[in-house]
Amino acid sequence: MHVSIRASAGAVVHRPPPRPAWLCHHGLVSMGDIRQVPVTELPNDFSDEVGRVLLDVREDDEWAAGHVRGATHIPLGDVPARIEEIDPDAELLVVCHSSGRSMRVLQYLAQIGYEGSCVSGGMVEWVQQGKPVETGSTGS
User: Fold this and answer.
1) Is 96 annotated in the active site?
2) What is the rounded CA–CA span in Å between residue 127 and residue 70?
3) What region does 29 belong to: left with phi over 0, alpha with psi -120 to 50, or beta?
4) CATH number of the domain that 122 lies in?
5) Is the residue at 67 inside a domain?
6) Which of 96, 106, 109, 119 is catalytic?
7) Count of Cβ atoms closer than 10 Å to residue 85 Cβ
8) Residue limits of the Rhodanese domain (predicted)?
9) How many domains does the chain contain in total?
10) pLDDT per residue over 5-30, tens digit each?
11) How far is CA 33 from the centre of its chain?
């Protein structure tokens, strides 16, 4: 949703809606406190992982262009509304394009009692290391 306002001379200026506070607030957990896991230490496929979840927080188009098989897809902005889909007892690994969104999600999750790790370098590093990806919009 965008907000339109009229500027002088009849021009219409479009502004994006305000971001949820949790996306902007860094909270009590600093990025330096979040564990980073290299992609080289992760399996190529999370389909059969028990007790371990790879959460991909990229947007739908990014997911469709290439994602890790068996990953759970919840876009960044949907995480609070879909929090019940994240097992609080699982080892949580969060991935995005290059780590920025993953770190923000992990800061938010830490504030509500979840623990997790960031996939260092995100999907950029995943692909650079030659690890496989699936394409298409199906999946979690």
Assistant:
1) yes
2) 16
3) beta
4) 3.40.250.10
5) yes
6) 96
7) 14
8) 48-135
9) 1
10) 444 455 554 444 444 444 444 444 45
11) 18
